[in-house]
Design brief:
The chain has 9 helices and no strands. It is mostly helical and about 170 residues long.
Length: about 170
């Protein structure tokens, strides 16, 4: 490469701004990003409204832990309802919001009924969502899922994940 082919960042950006293909691809990417943000906001809206009705002010679910941990029971109840509703929908479209909700549940003040998490795990094939569910189960030790935990511990893959996340069965405590 000779010195004549070097360009400054400003020169390269000016060249790209004159490239119609680059401008078109950038606009498409920006449009996809905006559409995703709008979908996420629409999915979060009923959750945020439910929490506001209880006196919890959030602009998005991802603020839950930072602002309100450990999460009180009524906060957790709203999140669990959202897991039930979103977990029944198209997983690709909703997995980001579902993941945020389940991560937030990991900051619950007390163990809660874990059946919605288990149902979500069983319905969902997204490995990230499944990992987040296992992480939340390891952190909070939800109730009413003892049978599922025993089956999970018998499955080499799920057991390996749970144990890496620090899960210990009640028998070993």
């Amino acid at each position: 490469m000779n010195d004549d082919s070097w360009k400054t960042a400003d020169e390269l950006m000016a060249e790209l701004e004159n490239n119609s293909e680059f401008v078109r691809r950038r606009a498409e990417k920006q449009q996809r990003l905006q559409e995703r943000e709008e979908r996420v906001a629409a999915q979060e809206r009923p959750i945020i409204e439910g929490l506001r009705a209880l006196g919890f002010e959030l602009s998005e679910v991802s603020e839950a832990v930072r602002k309100y941990a450990p999460l009180p029971d009524e906060f957790v109840a709203v999140l669990l309802d959202a897991v039930k509703q979103i977990g029944d929908l198209d997983e690709y479209t909703h997995s980001n919001v579902l993941e945020m909700i389940i991560r937030a549940l990991g900051a619950a003040a007390r163990p809660f009924d874990g059946r919605p998490l288990v149902e979500c795990y069983e319905k969902n094939t997204d490995p990230t969502v499944r990992w987040v569910i296992c992480n939340t189960i390891s952190l909070v030790r939800p109730t009413n899922i003892e049978d599922w935990v025993q089956k999970a511990l018998a499955d080499p893959q799920i057991s390996k994940t749970l144990r890496k996340l620090g899960f210990k069965s009640r028998k070993s405590e």
